[in-house]
Amino acid sequence: MELYHKTADEKPDHCTPNDKIRGQLIFSFTLSNAAKRPLAIFYLDEPPRKFSALKDFRRFPGGFISDPSPELRLAIRLASERRQIALELAEELHETPRGLSISALIAEPVVDVARRIRDFLGITLKEQGNWRGDYDALNAWREAIQKRGVLVFQAPGVEIEEMHGFSLSESLMPVIVLNVKDAPNGRVFTLIHEFCHLLLREGEGGICDLQNSQSQSEKSQIEVFCNAVAGETLVPTAALLQSKIVIQHDSGMNWNEAQLKQLAKDFSVSREVVLRRLLDSQMISSLGYESHIKSIHREYLQKSGIRKGGFAPPSSKALSQLGRKFIRLVLVSCYQEKISTSDVTEYLGVKFKHLGKIERRVMGSSQIF
Questions:
Q1: Can you say whether the dihedral through the CA atoms of 325, 326, 332, 336 is positive or negative?
Q2: Structure confidence at residue 324 (pLDDT)
């Protein structure tokens, strides 16, 4: 039996109302993907205001950015949109979003702030010494920070020469974004550096790197302070001085690559961090420090020219870019029927068929997908 009958006066029309609606939805989803905007944004009465709340921004030493790339602008906007989604989901679940319960002042001793960060995050030197790989360190520091109420995302499309990371210093659910193209140990330093910015509550950041500026402007002082705190947090001076390599070192202020690599491995940090800590502890000369730093940067540039991007499953990409805190919030909202499965696929940026694997990796078992 036909559901739709044409009269003699009707013109041939092979599109049923359902076909037209389906076509409109397909067009909407295609437009949403192409514009990198949520589907709902196209149904607003007026365009949303431009987002520009970038609080801190880390770039590669020596670089200069007159205008952020489209990829960086997208990363900033996505970070803000995902934070807003997380806040709304938390409200639907009747959860109270947390802000950071500790803070810092730039006038405080670096050692005191670093010790307070370690105590707050609950990461001990013993635990740090048991990590067996670069990603162990990154995942442990990231998870510890997320458990304290911070959303930590990773941006996949921004060149490392343009950005190491940035932060959105909000009172509730502040955000840190890392560049997934950076080395894992490099991301660890950026993570702690940005976390220090959040503690300062200064609301305004700046371009910064490991090579501390000699400028005494307020912005430079903040960057120098955040670098120093990050270094002391990751490699406490007392622990460095008691390390086997330092105790047995008998070459004055000269350090070879093997020694630097071993120290970096012992503390699960980059060689730049080790060099900075040696310089701060007056165990290497400024000339020696600069020489090693230039050598490491040349090495990075050479590797970046031949590095090939490997294939990562969609579930792994989602975990890497969004973090367990955000994904867990989305999944729990679905469990409690606050959002639909189509919302879940949109928020996580994956197809339905990948949700089961993500669910098992984040929640430990499959409940829906």
A1: positive
A2: 95
The percent of the chain in helix, strand and coil, each rounded to the nearest 5, is 55, 5, 40
DSSP code for 173: S
Mean pLDDT check: name the lowest of 7-21, 131-145, 344-358.
Answer: 7-21
Residues in the chain: 369
* Spatial CA neighbour of 230 closest among 196, 203, 264: 196
**pLDDT, tens digit, 9 for 90 and up, residues 308-341:** 556 789 999 999 999 999 999 999 999 999 999 9
Q: Could you tell me the sign of the dihedral formed by the alpha carbons of 269, 55, 161, 139, in that order?
A: positive
178 by Cβ neighbours in 10 Å (0-12 / 13-18 / 19+) ranks as buried
- Number of neighbouring beta carbons within 10 Å of residue 239: 16
Sign of the alpha-carbon torsion through 176, 180, 186, 188: positive
